[in-house]
Write a structure and sequence with these properties.
Layout (H helix, E strand, L loop, with lengths): L7 H14 L24 H6 L7 E6 L6 H7 L4 E6 L2 H9 L3 E15 L17 H10 L2 H8 L4 E3 L9 H5 L1 H10 L4 H14 L3 E3 L2 E4 L2 E2 L1 E7 L4 H14 L3 E7 L1 H8 L11 E7 L10 H6 L7 H4 L5 H12 L5 H18 L2 E14 L2 E2 L7 H4 L3 H4 L1 E2 L6 E6 L16 H8 L6 E3 L6 E3 L2 E9 L11 E6 L2 E2 L5 E5 L4 E4 H4 L5 E2 L1 E7 L17 H12 L10 H13 E9 L2 E7 L6 H8 L6 H12 L3 E2 L2 H7 L2 E2 L7 H14 L6 H4 L7 H16 L9 E7 L4 E6 L20 E5 L3 E3 L18 E11 L2 E2 L5 E9 L5 E6 L1 E2 L4 E7 H5 L4 E11 L2 E14 L8
Amino acid sequence: MRGVGLGISALLLVAAVTVALWPSGDKPGWQRPGSESPRPEVELDREALARRSGALLDEIVFLRETDLGRVTGLIESGSHQLFSQGISSPTVVNRLRDSVWADVDLAYGTASELTLNPAGPELDDGSLNPFALPEIREALNWLIDRRHVAEEFYGGLAVPRVLPLSTAFPDYARLAEVARELELRYAHDPERARVAIDAGMHELGARREGGRWTWRGEPVRLRLLIRSEDERRRVGDYLANLLQELGFEVERRYRTAEEASRLWIATDPAAGHWHLYTGAWISLAIQRDQADNFSFYYTPRGRAEPLWQAYRPTPEFDALAERLSRRDYRDWAERQAMMAEALSLAMEDASRVWLVDQLNASARAANVEVAVDLAGGVSGSALWPYTLRYTDRLGGRMVVGLPGLLGEPWNLVAGSNWAFDRMISRATQDPMVLPDPYTGLYHPQRIARAEVAVEEGVPVERTLDWLEVTREARIAVPEAAWVDWDPLHGRFITAGEAHPDGLAARTRVRVHYDADLFDRRWHDNAWLTPADFVLPWILDFERASETSPLFDPAHLATFEAFRRHFRGWRIVSTEPLVIEVYSDQIFPDAESIVAARAPSPLPWHVLMLGILGERRGELAFSSNKADRHRVDWLSLVAGPSLPALARLLEQAREAAELPYEVALGEWLAPGERERRFEALTAWHEAFGHFWVGSGPYRLHSVHPVAGSVVLRRFEGYRDPADRWLGLSKAPIPELVLDGPLVVAAGDPPGSNAVAAGGAEGREAAAFRLSVTVEGAPYPEEAIQEVRYLLFDGRGTLAQRGEARSLGDGEWRVLLDAEALASLGSGANSLELAVTSYRVALPAFASHVFATVPPGEEVLR
């Protein structure tokens, strides 16, 4: 899960859990060569696969299913073939493991936390919100026993998490020393929590009467919003009990995902509908750089919803979070120092109290295969639409169960952020790059190549060969580049106009898109054009301008953060499309820089309907603006927005001029406007919604009341169906560590004695590590590092080092007599961590052995 260093005990816990779930390389009851099986294997028609383009399935039906206890039975009955939610119940996971008809995939990117309401301290109803005070929020870290939560409520399929960094991702290992210090500072200490909460409550003017807190003569009542579908129900009850013991009245509000979102996301926190929420987050991809976390989770720049707009970090924390989001540091050492300081300030802010990182399993039928992201699981995998298939046939229909869908309105600008909504919509989209589900590095999807120029000294590295990195003393922004937008006159502002003395940037990304990009169609049969790249950029500026009818204050914080690093962009050519983007923001990986900078298209004619709806005061892209203006939050797929959009489409077809049409003019093909709206009209008449994408699946039908969504294969998708099948399985190293059970402790440290054979003779014990993947030796060039930690019987680290390669799949650790002598007599352990270039999560192995005084009999 993370690199070797402090905190490795938590890693070994997860590794041990994994081993317990899968005691051997084969699944119990699953077919092995020559064994009997209730379902004979059928060889996939490879020639038919080679001829097929687009999606591997013909239809996918998504159904709401919240009862995890039914998962195994539904798969075995054949009614469902995949469940996208993470399963953290050991009982359910073991049931799936024992089934011949089912299988599971593991993911490490889900985190559970407490979301706190920071509004107040006096709420709109005149009640007190204690969590408006950062000191009381901070005290919850001492109140909660995270290890108890992990072991009792998640059955050991979780590890305690204290910080806003995933324990599964690289930054945790990079900052291991800082992390360990903060974990100790915020370790479970209920008495310290009580003292801090008492002090905070007195500061707010509350009094304790008869063991109960009162404020202005009324009991202090906390509304705890508890998710009811999973382990968070027990977590919520546990927290409620703790708070009641401290003297608070607690109202336990059990809600499903959709019900809860109407409160904690959609309402103004000052209204007081909730004080705490048992939240959870899924990282959709392995985050190789988590510097964004502070800005996202603790500042108004994170999201447009009312809760985020209520965050009030200290000026110091806010500025540091914003700098980290821009990667405004000179070198790696400064970056690490900034991250360390931000971690400390985040714990003091405590708008969120992190609880555990979960080990989740997603369930599938045994004859189903899909690329599962090691962070986000199935629901977070960017490659699931390109790899989901039956292993014994091509095409067909598949039923996917998930705990919620259509939780929030879908639109292309500020629509639903629910993981399961995004999973479905992802299949309808065609991104420019795709993250590797096992490393987090980006691969090109609609990009032929990219050139990244960075300032000399900027800490950026390249791993993959589809892009180039060069370093320049100064990167000048061309005068013709667009740096701003004039909403009053509807025109672009160039760098030459805005910066007559010149403008420079830390990075330049030149993206060369696929030569056939504009030979591709949207789902409604409209051709892609450069206007699909230009209008989203205009819209971003319009929503941040107070002079525009599209102005949305909730968008302002995010936009201002963008403006601090944005230095301009320009379309260099359209045949093929080449775009240059200039920015001061960097990432450690050059691939991530391209992914963040490369403009992506959105269907401009669909965006135009939302723009018209906002200009006429009928609809709003964001929930925040919808609430403020008391209009519908725009949904392209269901609800009261659809009749309004149909009217707007008819008006757009008849309008003499559309918004921004002059600016878009040179990027529109002749007659494109008319053809676009004709295509969208036909699409709406055929399918009853306005969700238009360009991915391998199209949205066929939406059934909010029944709780189902249907996708069908997009016949116009031209990519080979097997393009991404090479990434269907995670190449996680499989380890077998062998060595002596008992060894002589050797001469004591400082002894001059040397065994026969010289220096080599002092190598008192050898341990051999076998590293394989699916039974084959793991290539040596694919291994980044094999490190070992030697612990004595007291758990003290006695030695660390690197193993020596013996060729593909074989490594050796040699411990000399001095190292063994330092252990003394007794039981010891050797722990190995293997990191691979092909997968971001380390693999672990351990070997327990005893040391005895020299001269005693030893077993080998």
